[in-house]
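Entry 0007
Protein: ThuA-like domain-containing protein
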Amino acid sequence: MSKILLQTTIGRNPDDWDISRFSLLAAELRAAGHDVVARDRVAGEDPVLSRVDELGFDQLWLMAVDVGDGLTPADAAAIARFRCNGGGVLTARDHQDLGCCLNQLGSLGLVNEFHDASVDPATMCDDVDTPTISWPNYHSGANGDYQQVLVPERVHELLRTDRTASGRIEWFPAHPHEGLVSTAGVPEAAVLAQGRSATTGRVFNLAVVIDGERGSDGMPMGRAVAESTFHHFADYNWDIDCGAPSFVTERPGSQVREDPSRLVVFKDYVRNVAAWLHSRVSVAV
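Output (structure tokens):
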């Protein structure tokens, strides 16, 4: 099994999305047999993230919960070396510019698209209930509810499960304002799963994968997954009784509480991702 660094891009803050808000994810990865180091970043040059390529980790699950200052150049350079050495990376951001430190990560920055001030928000905003948040802000549902997963014609192995009649994972945790991930500019990127806005009906990407990318030396880089929101993995979205930071004002839903079986199926996705990122042999998507 893998040694996984589960890391946020902010310092410890109980009233923010610090690592304490991802305890259920850490527990799920550990239950799958992985060695998980879960931590918040340290101000300045982070002593772990800036040396992630030297410390024996196989995977980095990076919860990008900052407002732009979540990675130093040394952190970003170490993550690039980590992928060049075959390490697997998952990134998860959120609406508008939340987590835009990911822009420093080469192809992983390209697949994470953030706010563009030149675009008229009136033509792009899907979350109309929180006017302080601009696009991208795809409204897939309330925290504590589910959203249906749309898939390409060929179902990726990450979405396979034996717990449903269809043989695939059909539901993800929902969130009122998800970010934007795409395949633009990255030939090795592919759409993994899509959702549909509950307000406008727009289809948007829930996650994309990067597989088969090569470094400047021509050697295969580690696989990567980019999630449209970290709320797919937050404690609050798996169990609303865990609570949220005080700045979260949207009324939560109750679907996960009323039907936890769909969350059990979603946890197969978490396990699939951890197994897939561990593999250093690229296969076609």
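Curator remark: Residues 281-285 have pLDDT under 50 and may be disordered. The chain has one domain: 3-278.
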